Amino acid sequence: MTALKIFTGGRSYDITGKGYSPEGHVFLDNKKLTGVKAAAAAGVDPYVSTTLLTAILCSNTTITKAPNSKADAKPEWQSVGNASEAPVVVAAMKWGYDPTTELENYPRIDEVPFSSSRKLMLTIHKLPEPAAPHAPRKFGSIELPPDTRYIACVKGAPNYVLKTCSSVLVASDWELRSGAAAAGEAQVLNGKPIARRTDAVISNSIQEMVDDYSEMALRCLAVAYKPFTHLPVRLVLCSLRVCGLCLCL
Predict the structure, then answer these.
(1) Is the distance from CB of 223 to CB of 152 less than 8 angstroms?
(2) How many Cα atoms are found within 13 Å in the side-chain-facing hemisphere of 55?
(3) Mind listing the pLDDT tens digit of every residue in the chain (249 residues)?
């Protein structure tokens, strides 16, 4: 499988490339985006970074170069682990993430593995310390509340993930394009709307989008997160925030 699209922040992004090779790019409206490092430096906040970071932290699959006997041949890439996770890991690498480095930056504290009844996987990670005292804590491309110390990452079947979520990441103009201006209550952080409370209108809108993509033979994977100030005693699947959808063929 190959990840072809990402839906996050109310926008749909296209991903180029094939197979397990990390060669490829992310496009928005036919315009190539620059990847996680350049996007952060330019202050661009499309939420792609947060969606893909959440996905790779909540994955146990690695992408490695396979031995190739031909000296002049391009390197071949292989997936080690769950093949269904490989497309989102490859997509994150195309965006500029090194999954091994990110798993070192955000060490995993606990895990609830995927099951056929739960239809999702959850991991808990410790956040890195800010680069400077009182510097904002960031997760991908979004700022977290200053007292956040841990983050829960979830991926799984969209209908199951949506049931656990109380809000969704949005761009400031998403409601104008989606027609959901009156749906939910926006959360504001540093003057920028970053999330909107989910309700029947938004949940149904996302589910309809999933159905449309499914009719195109695209497999949909939902990604969500939840910040914590203290390490939870029990892993409770509630009040999560939807990051986005990864769509694979």
Answers:
(1) no
(2) 34
(3) 899 988 887 788 899 999 899 999 999 888 888 777 665 555 555 588 899 999 999 999 999 987 766 665 666 899 998 888 999 999 999 999 999 999 999 999 999 888 888 889 999 999 998 877 777 788 887 888 888 999 999 999 988 888 888 888 776 544 433 333 334 444 444 444 455 666 676 777 788 888 888 888 888 889 999 888 888 655 555 566 676 777 665
Task: Name residue 39's amino acid.
Answer: A
CA 101, CA 93: separation in Å to the nearest integer?
A: 11
How many alpha carbons lie under 13 Å from residue 180 in its C-beta half-sphere? Answer: 24
Q: How far, in Å, CA of 222 to CA of 158, rounded?
A: 5
Fold of 3-66+76-166+219-248: Calcium-transporting ATPase, cytoplasmic domain N (3.40.1110)
Up-side HSE of residue 228: CA atoms within 13 Å toward CB? 20
Distance CA 58, CA 108 (A): 9
Cβ-based neighbour number of residue 210 at 10 Å: 21
Q: Which amino acid is at 147?
A: D
Distance CA 161, CA 55 (A): 13
Domain residue ranges of the chain, discontinuous segments joined by +: 3-66+76-166+219-248
Q: How far is residue 118's CA from residue 165's CA, in Å, rounded to a whole number?
A: 15
